[in-house]
Amino acid sequence: MPRLQQLPHPQGRADLPVRLHRVLGCVQGTLRRRRARPDRCRLDLDLRDDRPLPAGGVPVPPGAVVRPLRRGLAEVLHVAARQGHHRRVGQGAHVSDARPTRPLVSILTPSLNQAQWLPDTLDSVACQSYPNIEHIVSDGGSTDATVQILESAPDAVRWHSAPDRGQSDALNKAFAMSSGEIIGWINSDDALMDSRVVEDVVAFFDSHPDVDVVYGHALQIAADGHFIRVLWSPPYRHSRLKTFNFIVQPAAFIRRSALSDPMLRESYHFVMDWELWLRLAEKHRFARIDRILAVDRHHSARK
What we know:
18% of the residues lie in helices and 20% in strands. The chain is α/β, with parallel strands linked by helices.
């Protein structure tokens, strides 16, 4: 167990939104840990108030006790859930506002030997407030503890494990298994930012029927979970996309009607997401949600 440490509180920052004070230093890579409760989402950080953060990060209120990261994403994000709101779908959770007509959202996850981070990915989807989600994990035949983790995953997770031809092939297999009207893609080392990500994305699609691709900002962390930076995505401009991939893949969602099967071209191994955006941009409209939607983990083995 690491030693608790006290972070200093920057003075004279009355210009910051009040709700950001409650983040308790997540942008500094630390957090306050809540007592574990089995019926609650492990992760929840509501950053929908997405005005630019100050260069020095988010201040910590006086007296707040935080701890350094102990393992993964669960230790990066401050648990700020409203009481009685975020329970695991598929494990006896009751969603009071569930409506059968709400579109199904498919979250696709390619996986290969990333058991140390996969639980964070699964948890970030399982604790979504949106009631109609399927999570599909396409594993490439992992030799670590990935299969054991998937075997104990919530009922809403569908998965298979078999050798594949790479990440693009894994995504294509997951897409073929899915049936959602809206598609999200998060790798097994990434996660959704907070429990209202899917809820907000679906609401945006509902209010913008002419938009086929929605993207937002992302929080980038290191392999050990420490904060690196916020990846701010600019408003969409096609001329910019042709020269620079500014869309962070785990922070993007796509209408199924805009996608072809297979979803990705297997000849691309490192820029398959950029190729997908460029292909979609030929016929479909993109729009940005000005809020952090995902957590992107940066490490040496990532693509």
